[in-house]
Amino acid sequence: MENSVALENKVSGASRFIIVITTVTAAIMELLDTTIVNVALNQMAGSLGATIEDIAWVITSYAIANVIIIPMTGFLGEYFGRKNYYLGSMVLFGIASYLCGNSSGLWELVFWRFVQGIGGGALLSTSQAILFDAFPGKERGMASGLFGMGIVLGPTLGPTLGGYIVDNYTWGDIFFINVPICILATILTILYIPKKADEGKHRDKIKIDYLGIALLMLGIGSLQYVLEKGESKDWFQSVEISVMSLLAVVGMVGFVGRELNTDHPVVNLRVFGNRNFAFSSIFVLVSGFGLFTSVFVYPVLVQRINGFTPYETGLSLLFPTLTILPLFPILGRRMSAGASPIPFVTAGIIIFAIFGFYSGTATTDMGRWDFYSMQLMRGLGTVLLQLPLINASVAGLKPNEFGAGISLTNMIRQLGGAFGIALANNYVAQQYAQHRSDLVSNYVPSNPLFIERFNAIKMSFLARTGDAVHATTQAYRQLELLLDRQAYYLAYLDTFRIISIFFICVLPLVVLLRTKKKSAAEAAAAAKAAADAH
User: Fold this and answer.
1) H or E segment to which residue 373 belongs
2) Mean pLDDT of all residues in 127-147
3) TM segments (predicted)?
């Protein structure tokens, strides 16, 4: 606390303004990179010779890196010193961004996206802690509001900015734009962000749980591989999938055992002993699944099926989110005033469930504004879930457990997103095969609708080329493309509906959540922990 007071006394006026600009920009940049690639997946897949299913690794590798690094940022900041760690992460993020843009192969890009995610995870959590310390106690509500706006704007601006760049330049430029921002933020950090009085001076007392880190990486990485590749490799009929599944079990079981039996765990899993935290984590996992999966499937749907450009896709996400943006600081003030998060969580789950079924009614001829109400519901559900779930998670924890609880909450959300994208890929592939099989049964000469459609397409080609054989071949090819398009369209709609089913399944568990009114001291401790742990 003394260190925070000392920092408050050092920071004022123009310096505080620059710290706000630096930290909020860094946070927006990190969050923007979680969604900026979503609208470029088709272009990246074509350029790198990859399938949409494989290109999803570009998203999930970044998310997995975040999952690994987020719970470690606290002790890494203590070990290296918060300012040094922040600077190092900024430089790492910038270098990895440059190398992502220059990647010539899928797995090269996936590797550098993972490295980018290692740097990005620190930018988000450490930015919040630095911003929090730059404001005195009475003004920290405003600091939280500023940072909250950044948290919402980052993922919102990603698809729009990415779409504009892809439409007018190349997909590599979506990574290159990070480089000048990182350079500027690095210079401002060196000049204006102060160090804590004891920053980096307790390195000798900090013990790093290297085995825990290794087991976490082994377990999460292997499980993600199984989820991504299981469908295409026929699951446990494949030796490769069987071996990776075994490694996932060994990694996760070993990680849990290690963290519960060491005096210096990298992730404090003992907080799961609190019933409220354990049940809240289920909602956090599902909210991450719904948020990331819906933002992954939607751009692919509207570009593949509805013919949107990447920029149009981004705009269709931007305007609904801007509509609900003012709700974020209002909700933040309600949470700070001690309001129970349970009604907000319940409303968010219901709205997200309705959003999934509503999105499952989308048609192939819908334009950008036709999706406005659907995406408005997604944004509203997201706002009502994110901050209240953090409050619900820590409601039953002791003040000294807030940091571990909030850190784990953010890790679980990212984990839900990474797994959600992998499961969505598998589900789309499975449903596509089923719908294609169902649809192809109608492609028979005895079906008058098929004959009518075939003859119309054939006559169209014949009128242009005058070659009957070529016209017949092209008509069959065109019908094959239409068959694929319709099968994928139905598969994407099914994926939105499965999101709703997940939320409906967890809704009854809301009755198991408990909250209590926090004292002023507990509210202050929770706010500080949120800043330090993100």
Assistant:
1) helix 372-394
2) 66
3) 17-40, 55-77, 84-104, 110-131, 143-162, 174-194, 206-227, 239-257, 277-301, 313-332, 344-361, 489-513
Q: Do residues 66 and 414 touch, judged by C-beta distance below 8 A? A: yes
To the nearest 10 degrees (0 to 180), the angle between helices 342-359 and 372-394 is 150
In 10 A of CB 86, how many CB atoms?
27
| pLDDT value, residue 140 | 57
Nearest-angstrom CA–CA distance, 498 and 302:
18
**Residue pointed to by tokens 């890929």:** 425
Spatial separation of the C-alpha atoms in residues 217 and 91, rounded to whole Å: 23
Lowest mean pLDDT among 62-71, 93-102, 144-153: 144-153
In angstroms, the CA 133 to CA 112 distance is: 32
- The count of other CB atoms within 10 Å of the CB of residue 406 is 26
> What are residue 364's phi and psi, to 5 degrees?
-75, -15
Higher pLDDT, 274 or 257: 257
- Structure confidence at residue 518 as a pLDDT band (50, 70, 90): low
Query: Average pLDDT for residues 466-480, to the nearest whole number?
Result: 77
- What secondary structure letter does DSSP report for 193? P
CA distances from 329 to 142, 155, 188, 332 (A): 9, 17, 27, 5
Query: For the whole model, what pTM was predicted?
Result: 0.77
Residues 244-267, mean pLDDT to the nearest whole number:
89
Tell which wins on pLDDT, 251 or 23: 251
Q: Can you say whether the dihedral through the CA atoms of 455, 456, 462, 465 is positive or negative?
A: negative
The Cα–Cα gap between 252 and 267 comes to 13
Nearest-angstrom CA–CA distance, 482 and 375: 27
Tell me which residue has tokens 């299913």. Answer: 53
At residue 423's C-alpha, the angle toward residues 428 and 293, to 5°, is: 85
User: What is 65-104 written as a DSSP string?
Assistant: HHHHHGGGHHHHHHHH-HHHHHHHHHHHHHHHHHHHHT--
Cα 392–398–400 angle (5° rounding)?
A: 115
- Across 118-137, b (16+ Cβ under 10 Å) vs e yields bbbbbbbbbbbbbbbbbbee
What stretch of H or E contains 503? Answer: helix 468-506
* Identity at 316, one-letter amino acid code: S
Predicted local confidence at residue 2, as pLDDT:
42
Amino acid identity, residue 172? G
Residue 369 or 399, more confident: 369
Q: Measure Cα distances from 471 to 167, 343, 455, 456, 511 in Å.
A: 33, 61, 10, 11, 63
Assess contact for 338 and 63: CB atoms under 8 A. Answer: no
Cα three-residue angle 119-121-124, rounded to 5 degrees:
110
Q: What is the mean pLDDT of residues 259-279?
A: 84
Kindly state the tokens that stand for 389: 């779930």
Residue-wise pLDDT for 198-229, tens only, equals 666 666 777 778 888 889 889 888 887 887 77
Cα separation of 387 and 144, whole Å? 11
Quote the crossing angle between the two packed helices 73-80 and 520-533, to the nearest 10°: 80
The predicted pLDDT at position 445 comes to 73
pLDDT for 149:
65
| Virtual torsion, Cα 167, 165, 491, 238, nearest 10 deg | 120
